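Tip: read the tokens left to right.
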């Protein structure tokens, strides 16, 4: 649904986007991560045909950004970080205005506007002035607007920016719902744990260069290197630690907050025999799980915190 080849945007000596290679399949929810000035918004604006690259190619829904910009615009919904609203319009009037711009006419226009309002849970605000909406409601209205023409691809630039915790949860739930509808979604965000929760793929960009483009689980594995286990036993954790240290798959064991943190050797992926060894050794297990790395850890490990 989205594919770029050698995509580059240069401003003088500054490479805002540097030879970007990206491929998203239908139904992917792609989290686009990077520090401010990394090139996220520039990339999205190019894909939305609002900005021409210096060189390189990009395809959206099979259309080239050079030869078929109108077809791309019919196929996408682009929501910038901050977007203007018309102060003197009601919510329903705002949506009907944009539906008319998409040439949706007659009874179908009112029906579609009502449907997207229901989807983003703003039906009760249909007759309110746009200026009376909170930041969270305005973001949901922005999502409703880009969904009017039922686009296949959504480009969402910081959709949760500036929202309070409740509004972020609501936006996250809405994005999950859109994912279930089969939309291909690219989301840029600094709220990293939420991207890990809703995205199946992530890309990490810095100084215009895509450092990582992979499934979330693969990125975590790349950062982690070795598997670490959190193990809890009811009694004698020191004795359990000594037993585990003797195992040929275990590199190190240390006690942490009443639990055992067990680091496996770098080539070990199967550790299914460890619970049995502990149980046969007379220990009652209360916990046995991999230590989870979060997306923030991955981001800090893979980037240097510099911008273009």
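Filled-in amino acids:
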């Amino acid at each position: 649904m989205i594919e770029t080849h050698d995509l580059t945007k240069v401003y003088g000596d500054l490479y805002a986007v540097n030879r970007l290679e990206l491929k998203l399949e239908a139904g992917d929810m792609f989290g686009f991560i990077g520090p401010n000035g990394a090139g996220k918004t520039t990339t999205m604006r190019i894909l939305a045909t609002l900005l021409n690259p210096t060189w390189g190619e990009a395809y959206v829904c099979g259309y080239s950004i050079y030869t078929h910009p109108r077809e791309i615009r019919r196929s996408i919904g682009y929501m910038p970080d901050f977007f203007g609203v018309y102060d003197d319009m009601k919510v329903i009037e705002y949506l009907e205005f944009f539906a008319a711009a998409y040439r949706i006419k007659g009874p179908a226009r009112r029906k579609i506007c009502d449907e997207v309002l229901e989807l983003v849970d703003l039906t009760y605000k249909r007759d309110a002035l746009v200026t009376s909406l909170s930041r969270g409601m305005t973001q949901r209205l922005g999502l409703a607007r880009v969904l009017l023409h039922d686009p296949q691809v959504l480009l969402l630039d910081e959709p949760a920016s500036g929202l309070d915790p409740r509004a972020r949860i609501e936006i996250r739930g809405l994005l999950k719902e859109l994912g279930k509808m089969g939309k291909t979604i690219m989301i840029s965000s600094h709220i990293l744990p939420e991207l890990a929760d809703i995205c199946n793929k992530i890309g990490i960009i810095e100084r215009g260069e895509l450092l990582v483009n992979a499934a979330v689980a693969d990125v975590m594995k790349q950062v982690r290197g070795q598997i670490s286990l959190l193990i809890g036993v009811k009694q004698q954790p020191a004795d359990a630690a000594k037993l585990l240290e003797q195992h040929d798959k275990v590199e190190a064991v240390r006690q942490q907050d009443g639990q055992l943190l067990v680091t496996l050797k770098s080539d070990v992926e199967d550790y299914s025999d460890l619970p049995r060894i502990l149980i046969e050794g007379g220990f009652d297990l209360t916990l046995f799980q991999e230590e989870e790395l979060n997306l923030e850890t991955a981001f800090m490990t893979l980037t240097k915190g510099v911008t273009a």
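The first strand starts at residue 2 and ends at 11. The radius of gyration is 24 Å.
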